[in-house]
Amino acid sequence: MNTSAQSSAFAPLQNDTFIRACLRQATDHTPVWLMRQAGRYLPEYRDSRAKAGSFMGLATNTDYATEVTLQPIDRFPLDAAILFSDILTVPDAMGLGLSFALGEGPKFAHAVRDEAAVAKLAVPDMDKLRYVFDAVTSIRKALNGRVPLIGFSGSPWTLACYMVEGAGSDDYRLVKTMLYSRPDLMHKILRINADAVALYLNTQIEAGAQAVMVFDSWGGVLADGAFQEFSLAYTARVLAQLKKEHNGVRIPSIVFTKGGGPWLEEMGGLDCNVLGLDWTVNLAKARALVGQSKALQGNLDPNVLFAQPAQIEAEVVKVLNSFGKPHTGAGTGPTQIFNLGHGISQHTPPDHVASLVKAVHDHSRKMRA
Amino acid sequence: MNTSAQSSAFAPLQNDTFIRACLRQATDHTPVWLMRQAGRYLPEYRDSRAKAGSFMGLATNTDYATEVTLQPIDRFPLDAAILFSDILTVPDAMGLGLSFALGEGPKFAHAVRDEAAVAKLAVPDMDKLRYVFDAVTSIRKALNGRVPLIGFSGSPWTLACYMVEGAGSDDYRLVKTMLYSRPDLMHKILRINADAVALYLNTQIEAGAQAVMVFDSWGGVLADGAFQEFSLAYTARVLAQLKKEHNGVRIPSIVFTKGGGPWLEEMGGLDCNVLGLDWTVNLAKARALVGQSKALQGNLDPNVLFAQPAQIEAEVVKVLNSFGKPHTGAGTGPTQIFNLGHGISQHTPPDHVASLVKAVHDHSRKMRA
Fold first, then answer.
1. Which of A180, A178, A175 is nearest to A163 (CA)?
2. How many angstroms away from the CA of A13 is the closest CA of chain B?
3. Residue B280 and residue A259: Cβ atoms within 8 Å?
4. Containing structural domain, residue A294
5. Which pLDDT score is estimated for B5?
6. Which residue of A has its CA nearest to B224?
7. Would the pTM of this model clear 0.90, i.e. be above it?
8. What is the ipTM of this complex?
9. Which of A58, A151, A79, A78 is nearest to A350 (CA)?
10. How many domains, in total, are found in chain A?
11. How close is the nearest chain A Cα to the Cα of B55, in Å?
12. Which of A126, A316, B271, B314 is 20–30 Å from B124 (CA)?
């Protein structure tokens, strides 16, 4: 798929704070964006979704995907945009039949439960995901250089959870039964997923994504030992295949493992630029465990946004202070990208997001003074 | 409540492996019991429950509670029994109206959401929990010294989660909104809960419990900083009030925080004998972080029990080996109590539990040879 002609024609980046922080370069404030920032807590998003009819109606339509991706950027001075899409587009393109029942999570019509189903899996033709790459290019054009655009995918393990369970799960019984009783099948799924995710992210980069993020949303449900073997190893397999730059511009990569706190030291060895952290992690401890090679992204509890603005500000300050003074001056050093420790709740008052973004920008400037 | 006359009349303990391991004394094998070992995966439990009509029908009837507590002890050579009860009996005794709808989790009729509701809370009269203490005494008699009996309670924070949410929750939005916006109310609830839990556990000890366990099932959902202030501090407040011995016999205490991996170092400072660990924790790392004062309990992923016996045995060996060689000889040293990292699934084949217990006993004897 030739998208490089398009992507070289994009407007120059005006706010590169996020990209610089990913690369551990100094910035005049700590950049901030929020996981699921384009979402149901915004009335304008709810209007768009009503017009589109469904979540996938939004995600598969270039205009809608562009519209909702830019909504939080228009409302708040966020430092990055993230592609509006779903983490499960890749297994959908493998033919598993993704759907979203009203008020429920994602479901697959064809769960992968046995050897025959695994034998049918293959890296999908990227043409089946053209709607995603078209959205990336459209969003990048619409952003017009205001802030960088982050592309993303679910991690190989997280995709496998949904592929085997067929839906979300409380106990991951089916996928873990396969993992413990047929590790050969699980490894086969994960190899295919890793190669598919790498190709998918590289094609997003060609289409215009300026950074990419791997969401290992369910890595934290694995046992010690199993995490390293069935999640971390395949995230590493994705990273090994990722483009590090495009058209001469560096493309930072972010890995976020929800519940990954127990394995920070091991994740410090991943070949990515940024580790995303949930709210259980102490940022000072994380810096010590991860080492000097990575920026850290996170990690405010999304529920802080239900408190009043003064309390939100106090909690933002705690998170910034727990990371400590970021790098200033030339070269590279410790940097943070402010974010929530998980996706923003649909019940969040939008005004409280404004308070959060302002608090991050204001206090992080003071910390550098 | 005078129960000491009864408890001094109990039969002497024949298998003290669990108690010795709690106290970091040498044993000839690693003791094993399973969280929720009396439960729906056992056909005899399902029969008892059908007779009793409901979960609380089992828990509030002395004969049924005794019957189901002993069922796994009769079936498997487990090294401890645990009181059959619910973690939410204390807020129920506070008047919040606990119920279990069929196929759903627990619910409270009167959730604690505002200042007026908090003002009404008080440490409940232990007479309202007499059914629990009667069950403890009855079970202890029925055990007749075969294995020790563990009493338990939910932690102050875990009780508060249910009291404020009114039920289980995916996001803990209501309880965290109170925590961040009205920390004064949250602290008031937690003080009352801590004093109630301490009194409740001490009364279980007087009634015959030979060890006690605090289930901090939801401590792991808290942010770093909030965990220390709203969960750990109140678990410590419980422990400070607990009886350390009864009738001249030491009563070990266990604290289990699901998802507590990020705070093992801080939990090492708790005044308890054992820390329970979930499956995300590496036992060798945990030993290093917790220090020399505590035994460790855990931590097999319950989903391992869906694999075949040979694979269950291999995973048991991994967990035992990750802890390392336990203390032998005189004095005290590192000891493990084998358990799952969370409650056993209702879908578990009972024969697989037999394989697990045998593997723990066999391999742990070899490790000492």
1. A175
2. 35
3. yes
4. 4-368
5. 46
6. A280
7. yes
8. 0.94
9. A78
10. 1
11. 21
12. B271
